[in-house]
């Protein structure tokens, strides 16, 4: 069996039948926002970023791949351009695609992270770091990290996205990161609730001392 290279596998998932000037839609897996997703070069990336990298080389840190066609699955490098988050937001406003008062990313004066941070956060999560650890590292709350990792926030920035937990499911499971136990009081499962009652900390495990052996 002949194994395709990363580049051959990438192009096999793009429909270029419309010609050189048409959109070339990605026909593989997409994230919730419609951007193609592929593991390329050893990590998960959006298809448009891979298309740019193949044709033009590495993408500088903090830059994103934007679309002149405003078609998320398009991978025709003639329809792609590099810009910052601020550039992309200005482009959206000029094209009338942003809602009034919708200011996000680095244009938002309350933003605590930038594009480079967002990529690092997503890569850390993909490598197995917990939401709580990432939140502590970047000075964010746990829910904000989850929204960044799922693409709910900073959706156009690169980095591997993780599926968000459905709201209905979030309302039923333990609030401790990585625990899927049924939620009880205080938002914790029975196990973490018991730890909190015993130790004042749902994550603290108390080791019981071994029973003393009576000598005869």
Q: Provide the succession of SSEs.
A: HEEHEEHHHHHH
Structural class: mainly alpha
Fraction of residues in H or I helices: 25-40%
Total number of strands: 4
pLDDT < 50 stretches: 99-103
The overall pLDDT average reads 77
Number of domains: 3
The N- to C-terminal Cα distance equals 71 Å
Question: Helical element count?
Answer: 8
How can the largest sheet be summarized?
2 strands, antiparallel
The value of Rg in angstroms is: 22 Å
Going across the biggest sheet, name each strand in turn.
1-2
Q: Please state roughly what percent of the residues sit in beta strands, choosing from under 5%, 5-15%, 15-25%, 25-35%, 35-45% or over 45%.
A: 5-15%
Tell me, briefly, the overall form: elongated
Characterization of this structure:
The protein is mostly helical. It has 3 domains: 1-83, no CATH class; 105-164, Arc Repressor Mutant, subunit A (Orthogonal Bundle), CATH 1.10.10; 166-205, no CATH class. Helices cover 32% and strands 7% of the residues. It contains 8 helices and 4 strands, in the order αββαββαααααα. A two-stranded antiparallel sheet has the order 1-2. The chain has a two-stranded antiparallel ribbon with strand order 3-4. Helix 4 (115-126) crosses helix 6 (142-150) and helix 5 (131-138) crosses helix 6. The chain starts with 5 loop residues before the first helix and ends in a 17-residue tail after the last helix. Residues 99-103 have low confidence and may be disordered.
């Amino acid at each position: 069996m002949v194994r395709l290279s990363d580049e051959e596998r990438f192009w096999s998932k793009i429909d270029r039948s419309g010609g050189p000037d048409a959109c070339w839609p990605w026909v593989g897996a997409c994230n919730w926002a419609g951007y193609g997703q592929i593991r390329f070069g050893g990590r998960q990336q959006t298809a448009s970023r891979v298309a740019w990298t193949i044709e033009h080389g590495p993408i500088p840190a903090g830059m994103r791949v934007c679309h002149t066609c405003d078609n998320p699955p398009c991978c025709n490098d003639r329809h792609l351009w590099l810009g910052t988050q601020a550039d992309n937001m200005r482009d959206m406003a000029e094209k009338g695609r942003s809602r009034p008062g919708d200011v996000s990313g680095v244009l938002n004066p309350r933003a605590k992270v930038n594009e480079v941070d967002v990529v690092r956060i997503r890569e850390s999560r993909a490598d197995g770091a917990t939401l709580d650890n990432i939140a502590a590292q970047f000075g964010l709350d746990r829910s904000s990290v989850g929204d960044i990792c799922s693409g709910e926030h900073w959706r156009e920035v690169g980095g591997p996205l993780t599926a968000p937990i459905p709201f209905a499911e979030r309302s039923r499971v333990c609030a401790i990161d990585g625990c899927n136990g049924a939620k009880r009081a205080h938002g914790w499962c029975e196990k973490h609730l018991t730890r909190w009652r015993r130790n004042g900390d749902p994550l603290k495990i108390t080791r019981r001392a071994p029973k003393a052996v009576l000598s005869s």
